[in-house]
Amino acid sequence: MPMKRVALVSVLCAVCLLALACDDSSPTEPTDSPSWLQALIARIESEPVTNPPSAIFSYRYRGETVYFRPSRCCDVRSVLYDRNGGVLCEPDGGLDGGGDGRCPDFFAARSAERLVWRDPRS
Does residue 9 belong to any structural domain of this protein? Predict the structure, then answer.
């Protein structure tokens, strides 16, 4: 009987650890973000809420840190920014869904995804 209890406790602990590791809580305020990114977030927060909620992710792409704002709806293009806030491209979205064609390898070549900000409004 004690072995079954130890096994049960071990399984419960493992499940709890996995649940914590898979926590999808997202930051709602950027920390140590560039000023241009803070201004972009402030602008998004002044706009109507989107569904799905607006978000910004950072990635490594072509050896640099980049910031990605996914498409908010329908035919709206996503936007990929360089570390200084310059627009590198619009990787997807638009009428044909293919973006502007300036960085067609973005989705295949990106790495090190990190959620920077997600709109907390509902």
Answer: no
